[in-house]
């Protein structure tokens, strides 16, 4: 395992060096190239955002693969990581890296992420679609997930969906309801340095959303090529087949699965969250 990690790191650094040589003649920004950081709420388009940010590597000396991924919970054990681990991870990133994280907006993390070192993006999705996606992921796609066996033990999809909405307050590991799971991420929405992206906009208004993603970078780091070439690079980098968890790329799928009971318990748990995120104006849905 140690040898494999060493070889992976060596390959990554070699690729970064190759990128720097490739763009050696390009005018370098006065402040240097930043770290591109994709922050995501789980089941909200993590891999899609990763692919888009890696598209910048075709027009500037950014890494051609994601440096590393950080999550606040370990997928197999469900253990919650110490907040210091997130800071150590953020500090490990360097010029030209592209990184990805399910990262809480804690004060210390916020201070680092909104600094000139990073250009951060935060992608999220209608939480109703998130819980549906979560059921499919835990039950059918990730056999090593800490909740996989429990979901498999439930009698049907409806009971699994209730669990994804309400969490498991009696479990040995922390699994909160959907509103409580989202709460630690809300702070990313309060800082202009972090570009907020609705997953749905990448599906239904992709060109405009890719333009926002591009402009968020260009506002701080001019790139040595035309806007159209940059947009083309971001568009062609998208490949849903390379995402292990991308199912349909559709939005509003929750309408096919929510019963009246699911609607009621979701409104009780997270109705205010839908309004805050702009998915509903009130609880009359």
As for the number of domains, it is 1
- CATH topology annotation: Rossmann fold
Number of helices: 13
Strand content: 5-15%
Tell me the Rg in angstroms: 20 Å
Approximate helicity band: 40-55%
Total DSSP E strands: 5
**Classification by helices and strands:** alpha/beta
Q: Any guess at the CATH architecture?
A: 3-Layer(aba) Sandwich
Poorly predicted regions: none
Structural features, described:
Helices cover 47% and strands 9% of the residues. It has 285 residues and is α/β, with parallel strands linked by helices. It has a single domain (32-276), classed as Rossmann fold, CATH 3.40.50. Helix 3 (83-92) links the parallel strand 2 (69-71) and strand 3 (98-102). The longest helix has 21 residues, at 2-22. The protein is globular.
Keywords:
Rossmann fold; 285 residues; alpha/beta
Overview in brief:
With 285 residues, the protein is of the alpha/beta class.
Layout of strands and helices, then pairs:
Layout: H1 2-22, E1 35-40, H2 46-54, E2 69-71, H3 83-92, E3 98-102, H4 107-113, E4 118-124, H5 127-141, H6 148-153, H7 157-166, H8 178-182, E5 195-198, H9 199-204, H10 206-218, H11 227-236, H12 254-257, H13 260-276
Parallel strand pairs: 1-3, 1-4, 2-3, 4-5
Helix pairs in contact: 3-4, 5-7, 7-13, 10-11
């Amino acid at each position: 395992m140690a040898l494999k990690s060493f070889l992976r790191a060596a390959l990554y650094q070699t690729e970064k060096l190759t990128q720097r040589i490739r763009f050696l003649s390009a005018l370098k920004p006065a402040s240097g190239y930043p770290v591109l950081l994709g922050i995501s709420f789980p089941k909200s388009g993590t891999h899609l955002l990763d692919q888009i940010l890696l598209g910048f590597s075709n027009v500037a000396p950014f890494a051609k693969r994601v440096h590393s991924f950080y999550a606040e919970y370990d997928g197999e054990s469900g253990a919650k990581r110490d907040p210091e681990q997130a800071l150590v991870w953020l500090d490990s990133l360097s010029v030209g890296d592209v990184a990805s994280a399910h990262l809480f907006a804690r004060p210390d993390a916020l201070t680092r992420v909104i600094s000139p070192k990073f250009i951060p993006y935060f992608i999220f999705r209608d939480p109703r679609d998130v819980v549906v996606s979560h059921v499919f992921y835990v039950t059918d796609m990730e056999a090593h997930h800490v909740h996989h066996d429990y979901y498999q033990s439930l009698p049907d999809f409806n009971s699994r969906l209730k669990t994804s909405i309400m969490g498991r307050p009696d479990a040995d590991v922390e699994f909160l309801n959907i509103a409580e799971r989202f709460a630690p991420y809300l702070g990313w929405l309060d800082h202009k340095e972090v570009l907020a992206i609705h997953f749905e906009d990448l599906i239904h208004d992709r060109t405009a959303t890719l333009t926002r993603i591009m402009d968020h970078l260009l506002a701080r780091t001019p790139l040595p090529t035309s806007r159209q070439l940059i947009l083309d690079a971001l568009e062609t980098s998208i490949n849903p087949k390379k995402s292990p968890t991308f199912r349909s790329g559709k939005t509003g799928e929750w309408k096919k699965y929510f019963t009246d009971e699911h609607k009621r318990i979701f409104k009780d748990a997270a109705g205010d969250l839908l309004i805050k995120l702009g998915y509903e104006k009130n609880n009359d849905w």
